[in-house]
Amino acid sequence: VEQEYLLYQNTVFVGSINFSPSPPGSVTFYMPSRIVLAPGDVLTLNAPVHPDIHMTNISFSLVGLVGTAA
C-alpha cells in the first residue's frame, strides 16, 4: 500500500511525500509550486490514516532558505 504524507501550509494543501512499496521501493515528492512561508505560517505534515505497520521510526527533515522571495 502506498503511504502518502500530506503537506499543508496553514490549512491549504501544498504537496505530499509518497512512499511506494513495490520493488525497488521509491519515494516521490509532489509540490506543484514553490512554498513561501511568512512569519506566523504553520507547515503541517499529516501521516496516512491507515499507516503501514512496517513503516516505523520514520522522520522528516525539511530544509528551506531564509531571505526574500525571488
Please provide a written account of the structure.
With 70 residues, the chain is an all-beta fold. It is built from no helices and four strands. It has strands at 3-9, 12-20, 26-30, 43-46. Strands 3-2-1-4 form a four-stranded antiparallel sheet, with no helix packed on it. A hairpin with a 5-residue loop joins strand 2 (12-20) and strand 3 (26-30). The N and C termini lie far apart (39 Å). The mean pLDDT is 86.
Shape: elongated
Query: What is the C-alpha radius of gyration, as a whole number of Å?
Result: 14 Å
Helix content: under 10%
How many beta-strand runs?
4
Give a concise summary.
This protein is mostly beta strands. It contains no helices and 4 strands. The chain has a 4-stranded antiparallel beta sheet, with no helix packed on it.
Tags for this model:
single chain; 70 residues; mainly beta; four-stranded antiparallel β-sheet; 4 strands; 0% helix; elongated
Present the secondary structure layout:
Blueprint: E1 3-9, E2 12-20, E3 26-30, E4 43-46
Antiparallel strand pairs: 1-2, 1-4, 2-3
